[in-house]
Amino acid sequence: MTNAPITTAAGTGLLLDKVALITGAGRGIGAAAARLFAREGARVLLAARTGPQLAAVAQEIRAAGGTADHVVCDLADPASVRAAVERAVDRFGRLDVAFNNGATGQPPGPMDELSEADFDQVCAVNLKGPWLAMNAEIAAIRATAGRGAVVNTSSVGSLMANPQLPAYGATKGALNSLTASAAATYGPEGIRVNAVAPGTTLTEMLQEWDARSPGIIDQLNARTPLGRAADPEEIAQAAAWLLSDRASYVTGTVLRVDGGMLA
Hints:
By secondary structure, this protein is an alpha/beta fold.
């Protein structure tokens, strides 16, 4: 018997009155975060490449009484990233917090079988994208709210060998380093920077991996003490806490949310 995921329907005001930007918000962890942050009192700007998905999630949030808008954003395009941050400030007057969750996967397999084009794309989205986003977000926080927080989505695969997703794991490992450097750089200004490192999480990206490598979810669950994959909202809950004032003395941390996989 395994423990079931816990989800909450009502918010507690964890992010009350904060303006939040969420990348990769059209599906998976990002969409769950958008819904959760809005329930917790934030005004949210959703960003991703997929306009129809973003519009649907934003409409769902508004229908539930939340405040949300969306903007199409390509993390591999510097101008697009900067425009998304500017849109948050234009729409809501400031930026308090940001959740850099957008990412791309890679075809699973040994590193020597990955094409150079695929490697470059993973690096552009998963490493350069958050770097661009953090630079723009920190500038916006500094210019408007003055103090704030950023959370990047890493991966438990960044903390161990990742032979089936080597480029993905490498970019997330580099993101951990970038997160720590940003925390040390901007901490004196009152801007905290952390990362969450999800374990096996029931996102579309994971389902796509399982379709290419049948049985991979069962294999990962067998290595997880809790014996199951996470619901996307369980990762979003960790990000919400890190972004909230309740985590006011936490910065430079990569928080594993992995069901004990690396325990």
